[in-house]
Design brief:
pyruvate-formate lyase- activating enzyme, alpha/beta, four-stranded antiparallel sheet, about 40% helix, nine-stranded mixed sheet, 17 helices, 18 strands, globular
Length: about 475
């Protein structure tokens, strides 16, 4: 698709400026803007096993270091309350947030006590953590429980180093189906356009998602960083963006009519469900924990990726911020609004004009003209801009390239870790998972025991939001 190629090329140039960050010694986190609502992201960077292409800040799990980390994290959480932030939604990502369920529960309870206005909590997990213990502990604490699956295809699971972690596709399917109906909203994270994935594989994955009983599914395009794109080409095959639009159409058509688009890549049975992008309804957000990113006051901030550095900064009473970008100018903030709202499927033109003092057609003429000529705009009336299916795909491309650029940043930060922490990035052992949930069906014949890994595989963002009411 010509529009995809033009957009991808432009974004790879623009994002180098918008996403760039420099080392900075910021003693205290920036103050909130009075009256503004924020979302809160908490990062848990531990996994029992490590996926080979994951660019998120994650380390090999050890109970002592993980418990120490949770203690430090709660100190940072209490400190954020002292600064007066107003958090309305909480998303917990990783890594594997359910790695220590007791610590996770204590952290959620603290967040709710500090911020009673938090309405919904979303947490990621892995298939092997779907147990009665986890469900019992979290069902009243977590409204959106998101399970990283990526695919039910055994061949793809092998290539992603997930087969030996979680078992065959049938075993993973059984675990996900067991969780259905036990949370307010169960989301299944999937992936498409993996180099060796065929249309038949994808169609089967889409059909199986519908059979799990999940309330929602998110189909991410493969978002490998430049470094990982080279590794993929060497080991499995080159990424083929030319077929991405066709694969996206298969996902959309296959999920309909039971699932309707809730964002460019999330599909829900219930129009009022939470989704996985907190930047849509909460333009600014605060990230806590090692490697977490924040966007406050029109500026990006990134916490240190080092576990030791994170602990020492918090113990010294300083912020965990190690890098920051330049403050966005007005054009940058308008473009940010354009992308985030349209990724959520509609842009409020009246709100845009009220906030920036100019109609969007005059503020962003190139962006609006491109979307119109590419056939991406469905409705453009006095209040709303909404998207066609082609427009949803173009917003997916924008987010794919933005997050791939973030993955490149993460890869670089991991290279800069001290030697004793780099050792924790090497996965050399096989750690068996916990017991199967009582009452669940037996594992498929011949399936190996499920093992733990990062919940969301290759290059994704962690976030959440509440859907707006339909206009």
């Amino acid at each position: 698709m010509l529009s995809e190629r033009l957009l991808t090329g432009a974004l790879r140039v623009l994002n180098r400026g918008y996403m760039s960050q420099e080392p900075m010694d910021i003693a205290q986190f920036p103050d909130p803007e009075p009256g503004r609502q924020y979302s809160l992201y908490i990062h848990i960077p531990f996994c029992e096993r490590l996926c080979p292409y994951c660019s998120f800040n994650r380390f090999l799990y050890g109970e002592d270091r993980a418990r120490s980390y949770f203690t430090t994290l709660r100190t940072e959480l209490e400190r954020s309350a002292e600064r007066g932030f107003d958090f309305r939604a909480l998303y917990i990502g990783g890594g594997t947030p359910t790695i220590l369920v007791d610590e996770l529960c204590t952290t959620i309870d603290l967040a709710r006590s500090l911020y009673p206005q938090i309405g919904e909590v979303s947490a990621e997990s892995s298939p092997n953590h779907i147990t009665d213990e986890t469900i019992s502990a979290l069902k009243d604490r977590v409204q959106r429980f998101s399970v990283g699956v990526q695919s039910f295809d055994d061949g793809l699971l092998n290539q992603m180093a997930r087969y030996d972690k979680y078992g065959c596709g049938d075993a993973v399917f059984e675990r996900v189906a067991y969780a259905a109906g036990k949370f307010h909203l169960l989301n299944v994270d999937m992936m498409f356009n993996f180099p060796s994935q065929t249309l038949a594989m994808l169609e089967k994955d889409v059909a199986r998602v519908k059979l799990t009983g999940a309330d929602q599914t998110t189909f991410y395009p493969l978002m490998a960083s430049p470094k990982n794109r080279k590794e993929l080409a060497r080991t499995i095959g080159a990424m083929d963006y030319a077929r991405e639009a066709e694969y996206y159409r298969v996902v959309c058509d296959g999920l309909a009519p039971e699932f309707e688009p809730a964002s460019a890549w999330t599909f829900s049975r219930d129009k009022g469900g939470m989704i996985d992008e907190y930047i849509v309804d909460y333009e600014e957000y605060v990230g806590l924990g090692s490697g977490a990113m924040s966007y406050v006051g029109g500026r990006l901030y990134n916490n240190t990726f080092s576990l030791d550095g994170y602990r020492s900064r918090i113990q010294e009473g300083r912020s965990a911020i190690a890098k920051a970008g330049k403050p966005y100018d007005t054009l940058g903030r308008m473009r940010y609004r354009f992308v985030t709202e349209l990724f959520g499927l509609r842009l409020d033109k009246q709100r845009f004009k009220a906030d920036f003092g100019v109609p969007i057609e005059r503020a962003l003429p190139l962006e609006m003209t491109f979307m119109k000529l590419a056939g991406g705009i469905d409705v453009n009336d006095e209040r709303w801009v909404t998207l066609t299916p082609r427009g949803r795909y173009l917003l997916l491309v924008i987010m794919r390239e933005t997050l791939a650029n973030s993955n490149d940043f993460r890869d670089h930060e991991r290279e800069m870790l001290p030697a004793h922490e780099k050792v924790l990035l090497n996965d050399t052992g096989v750690v068996p998972c916990g017991p199967r949930p009582s009452g669940s069906a037996p594992r498929a014949e011949g399936a190996p025991g499920a093992l733990a890994s990062p919940p969301h595989g290759i290059g994704r963002v962690s976030s959440s939001r509440l859907r707006r009411p339909t206009p």
